[in-house]
Design goal:
heterotrimer; A mainly alpha; B alpha+beta; C mainly alpha; A: MetI-like fold; 12 helices; about 0% strand; C: MetI-like fold; about 80% helix
């Protein structure tokens, strides 16, 4: 290796600070959480050191399994909705005139800067009975009286899609902006309509980033707490809400810990499988 | 100024994993001269330069500068100035900031730095451009800044890694001359890496031809050109016709015809090198001296240069080149003979 | 196809804007109650943000936590990004993965981890807890921005510095570090904004002892709606839009987001 690139004592010393921080404040909490999942739960929110499999056994119960399947389902759906809209949109975006191009990007980035609580609040108003869509429709004379569309499954789905959407666009943007316009032009000189060109040239080339964007949206929505909590009834809650609920209001920290570890494995597993799959199908 | 910067490279070997980039080099290079390491990409010339600079550690061997063993010394203690292929100009500093950098980090005072920077910018014809940002400069100007920066502290060695490769052809030729004149004026020992043999020929006092990690030949440019020591050197430096044949008891036959050539003894395969400009076309039916007959396959008349490709039944067509004065009227398909004067035939193999 | 492009774009714009507009309308409503059409126009709720100590304290707390945790995040990430890219270290991919992991996992996991960690230390419910936990969680962002800057830097620059007489420490201080500053600032800004908006980690770590802005908003919403919440939302939106518009006008927003340089040439 190049002489100036050989790690020195000094470089290891410099690396020790971040490593120490990550070990103490990230790995240690994980270890403690792992231990806690075996602890005995005492009524009232406390727990004492023990070795019980009670919390882990609850993972096999119907309630938990149902929550897990629901979470995966709704997040896959939100991810799909996101990417299906974001991909063609970003493609068109990269080909727009400078002004509209930049204006749209400013809009998207501004949406990114919103916190989940504000997004949840905004959608709850928009889908609510007092000052939302239905009120506008009543005012326009289309509907007779206003209705509340939240809390509901569709409200959670919309909310999740909303927060994941800008991230999807950010993930797709660099690669789509690099798509050589001559590729699509070549296809058109060979007789493909813009519609066909999109499906036979752009989408196949974009496959890796479509997958990456979908994965990003999926993992991101899986981690969302406030949106499902705000916009959905308990039957619409995802694992993130369930875990947090168990840890705080139900005061069952060992169970929450077990679930959190399960969710970790699930998230990493999904990412791992999809990445491996994508790597394998690439030639 | 006492000539300093005498380099001695002793048994240098560099391995990267399984790959041997430099396979054993022993060289003694004279101080005060411009020496080129010339060769195709991958021949190890850049690795050699980096070992001299201290940016790579030799797997085996030692590097001596003015009889001091500097092999274990890090680059910042080696008294060198280097121009990199990408020029490596610091984007966050101005021109003056770049050129004054070596002095600034040694704690020199502002006025001192300022006057030296002005002196250096004058040396490379960049008067008054001290305040410019690097991004505002043209390719040629950037090259000069890199040169001025490297020479700021009058180092013992001036090292250049393909310094002109990023420039277009006209600018390259102009800067080749400028760099050479500068080097001569300062009398500084200079080692330059290039894959462009014309560049090496233009600028060097000494050429070190490398191939596959080894030194093929060392010599003055014209010397190496006229007396190549191997087929590789013959074809890498300029163009040549490589004529392969057999010798038996000192008598050479090429393409079945007898060739009168100096310096062949014994028997075995033989390769001769004859430069295109030394070969002549003869349309007289009876070829005299060393000659081969063949058919013209291509004529290239560039006005200032005339070339003719003749298929004489060897591996490749023979190329005959000449100035407009020597143009012979030939057409494609015509039968001709090509003469190879005795003095022009150099034995490069066998 | 053209029609599809305009339909899609309009749909996206409406989709993104709709909740924002509704919230803006509500924030200017004179009435305490949300209704539509709104009755009267008032900036009263914006004044509340300043006058009400509850809101003011929450805003200040959030700003402090964000400023401190973002700084700590950059302090953790920069040495890591530098060493991993400047030197050939065999375990580099694993160490880098460790740096990315906190952010990749669902936040509730880090939140619960932080909760049990601080409880077991008997040291919880304080601002420092949130600052440290946020810093670790968000250190991934500066790690990525600084790593990217290291990757795109000409590797010959530190080599050149050394041939000019700079030892490795001087080379870092005078050449590498100044060139990393823009990416450190970007990482800081990203961590700052995310920390400002973050709920679940702050909540689980501090419970009710430290009230950040998101925590206050969620608490208030449990007890019923006040338009002040809408006013907060609008302020956030305006600040973000202003910053990005300025960036777009005076900086290079497209390049920042990874656009192809060729696009920047197109001035149709």
């Amino acid at each position: 290796m190049s002489e100036v690139r050989r790690p020195t004592r000094g470089s290891w010393a410099v690396l020790s600070f971040p490593l120490a921080m990550l070990t103490v404040f990230f790995l240690a909490p994980f270890a403690i959480m792992f231990a806690t999942s075996f602890y005995h739960r005492i009524e009232g929110g406390f727990y004492e050191p023990a070795f019980e499999l009670a919390s882990w056994e609850r993972l096999l119960q119907g309630v938990f399994i149902e929550r897990t399947l629901f979470s995966i389902g709704i997040c896959l759906l939100a991810g799909a909705v996101c990417i299906v809209i974001a991909f063609p949109f970003t493609y068109f975006l990269t080909r727009m005139r400078r002004r509209s191009h930049v204006a749209l990007l400013v809009l998207i980035m501004s949406a990114l800067a919103l916190s989940e609580v504000i997004v949840g609040f905004a959608w709850s108003v928009l889908l609510g009975r007092a000052a939302g869509i239905s009120n506008i429709l009543v005012w326009l004379g289309v509907m007779d009286e206003s209705a509340a569309y939240q809390p509901s499954f569709i409200a959670v789905l919309l909310g999740l899609s909303y927060i994941a959407f800008p991230y999807c666009i950010l993930a797709l943007y660099p690669q789509l902006s690099r798509l050589d316009p001559e590729l699509t032009e070549a296809a058109q000189t060979m007789g493909a309509s813009p519609w066909r060109t999109f499906w036979t040239v752009v989408v196949p080339i974009g496959r890796p980033i479509i997958l990456a964007g979908f994965l990003l949206a999926f993992v991101f929505t899986l981690g969302s707490y406030l949106i499902p909590a705000f916009l959905g009834r308990p039957e619409h809650w995802t694992l993130s809400v369930f875990i947090s609920d168990q840890a705080t209001f139900n005061a069952n920290v060992p169970f929450a810990a077990a679930m959190a570890l399960f969710l970790t494995v699930l998230s990493l597993g999904v990412v791992g499988v999809v990445t491996w799959f994508e790597g394998g199908t690439r030639r | 100024m006492l000539a300093r910067g005498g380099l001695r490279l002793e048994g240098l070997v560099k391995r990267f994993g399984d790959v041997e980039a430099v396979a054993g080099v022993d060289l003694r290079l004279p101080p005060g001269k411009l020496i080129s390491f010339l060769g195709p990409s991958g021949c190890g010339k850049t690795t050699m330069l980096r070992m001299i600079a201290g940016l790579e550690r030799p797997t085996q061997g030692r590097v001596h500068l003015d009889d001091e063993d500097i092999t274990d010394r890090p680059p910042h203690l080696r008294d060198i100035g280097m121009v990199f292929q990408t020029l490596a100009l610091f984007p966050h500093l101005s021109v003056a900031g770049n050129v004054g950098y070596p002095m600034r980090i040694r704690g020199a005072q502002k006025p001192e730095i300022q006057s030296r920077v002005d002196e250096l910018l004058g040396l490379v014809s960049l008067h008054g451009l001290g305040d410019r940002r690097i991004s505002q400069l043209s390719g040629g100007q950037r090259q000069r800044v890199a040169t001025a920066r490297a020479l700021a502290l009058e180092p013992r060695l001036f090292l250049l890694d393909e310094p002109l490769s990023a420039l277009d052809a006209n600018l390259r030729e102009q800067l080749q001359v400028e760099l050479r004149l500068l080097q001569q004026k300062l009398g500084i020992t200079t080692v330059m890496v290039t894959h462009d043999q014309r560049e090496a020929m233009t600028m060097s006092d000494l050429v070190v031809v490398m191939n596959e990690g080894k030194v093929e030949q060392v010599g003055e440019p014209l010397d190496v050109y006229r007396h190549p020591g191997s087929p590789f050197v013959a074809s890498f430096i300029g163009r040549t016709n490589l004529l392969r044949g057999e010798a038996s008891d000192g008598l050479v036959r090429i393409g079945g015809r007898p060739f009168d050539v100096e310096g062949v003894v014994g028997s075995g395969p033989v390769t001769l090198s004859v430069r295109p400009e030394d070969a002549h076309l003869q349309t007289t039916p009876a070829p005299e001296g060393n000659a081969l007959t063949g058919r013209v396959v291509f004529v290239r008349d560039l006005g200032e240069l005339f070339e003719c490709y003749v298929d004489c039944g060897l591996d490749e067509p023979v190329v005959v080149a000449g100035s407009p004065r020597e143009r012979v009227d030939v057409r494609q398909g015509q039968s001709v003979s090509v003469a190879f004067p005795r003095e022009a035939c150099v034995v490069v193999e066998g | 196809m053209r029609a599809l492009k305009w339909i899609l774009t309009s749909f996206v714009v409406v989709f993104i804007l709709a909740p924002l507009i509704i919230v803006a309308v509500v924030s200017f409503n004179q009435n305490r109650y949300m209704d539509f059409p709104p009755e009267g126009f008032s900036l009263h709720w914006y004044a509340e943000l300043w006058n009400d100590t509850g809101w003011r304290d929450a805003i200040v707390t959030s700003l402090l936590v964000a400023a401190a945790s973002a700084a700590l995040a950059v302090a953790i990430a920069t040495p890591m990004a530098f060493v991993l890219r400047a030197y050939d270290i065999r375990l580099a991919p694993a160490i880098f993965a460790l740096g990315i992991l906190p952010f990749m996992l669902p936040p509730v996991i880090s939140a619960l981890g932080a909760l049990v960690f601080w409880s077991s230390l008997g040291f919880s419910g304080r601002m420092e807890n949130i600052i440290i936990s946020h810093a670790i969680f968000f250190s991934t962002l500066p790690l990525i921005t600084v790593s990217l800057a290291m990757e795109t830097m000409d590797p010959a620059l530190p080599e050149a510095a050394q041939t000019l007489g700079a030892n490795p420490r001087t080379s870092f201080r005078t050449i590498t570090l100044p060139l990393l500053v823009p990416s450190m600032i970007t990482g800081y800004a990203a961590a700052f904004v995310l920390s400002l908006n973050e709920y679940i980690i702050a909540f689980m770590v501090s419970r009710f002892s430290v009230v950040t802005l998101p925590i206050k908003i969620v608490n208030d919403l449990r007890y019923g709606f006040t338009p002040t919440i809408a006013a907060v939302a609008v302020v956030f939106i305006l600040i973000a839009t202003t910053i990005f518009t300025l960036f777009a006008l005076f900086g290079n927003l497209l390049k920042f987001l990874g656009a192809d340089p060729a696009i920047l040439e197109r001035e149709r």
